[in-house]
Amino acid sequence: MRxxxxxxxxxxVRGLAAGGERVLIGIAGCPGAxxxxxxxxxxxxxxxxxxxxxWVPMDGFHLADVALERLGRLRRKGAIDTFxxxxxxxxxxRLRHETGTIVYAPSFDRDLEQPIAGAIAVPPEARVVVxxxxxxxxxxxxxxxxxxxxxxxxYADLDDRVRLERLTKRHVRFGKTxxxxxxxxxxVDEPNAAAIRATRASADLHVDIDALAxxx
Length: 216
Ligand SMILES: Nc1ncnc2c1ncn2[C@@H]1O[C@H](COP(=O)(O)OP(=O)(O)O)[C@@H](O)[C@H]1O
Ligand SMILES: [Mg+2]
Hints:
Elements: E1 2-3, H1 6-17, E2 23-28, H2 35-48, E3 53-57, H3 65-71, H4 85-97, E4 103-109, E5 114-122, E6 128-132, H5 143-149, E7 152-157, H6 160-173, H7 178-197, E8 205-208, H8 209-212
Parallel strand pairs: 1-8, 2-6, 2-7, 3-6, 7-8
Antiparallel strand pairs: 4-5
Bound molecules: adenosine-5'-diphosphate and magnesium ion (MG).
Residues 29, 31-37, 166, 170, 214-216 line the site of adenosine-5'-diphosphate.
């Protein structure tokens, strides 16, 4: 299934929300594919279209450096075992069912490269939560349950050449030297990308990121 164009995505979510229950949309995809950019834009467009929506990134469940150091995993931050998957799952379940109070979610600060607890408020009136991250379609525990907690999971498609260029630039923007960025992409991001790409076929929808022509 292929679909392009922001308005069509908004209409798709409107259809999912018609039953009245809060809708949880997940966006999976490789590092640098544009998941966060799309999620932020979609939440804004949904809200403007009368469906209050909040962007809640999976990246908020990065383990803190202090925990990664203890586990000896700091040097491959971003791999599947450097996230608190069960914590994310618990939050998604709360977001789905706990609609009478504000639910707070963690964000991920790219300057500090650390998760920040309680940074994002999802108020009772939120009809849609847009989440996104690398591993939403993974078959490893507990990720199948994460997928089951979502209404739909989409996959962000972007040409690999463009993706790698944007990803490398983003690393440089947040403090790596060009050499460090290239090495991090090759040694950390791309092994993760291979595993993520293998989950693509199980998405409910494939979103052509370039066809959306989002500005960053
Ligand atoms: N349409 C676009 N044109 C140019 N750069 C973009 C575009 N969309 C996203 N970007 C940039 O590409 C990088 C990767 O996008 P991001 O949304 O962070 O990807 P992901 O969340 O999948 O890792 C970011 O630096 C972002 O600003
Ligand atoms: Mg992102």
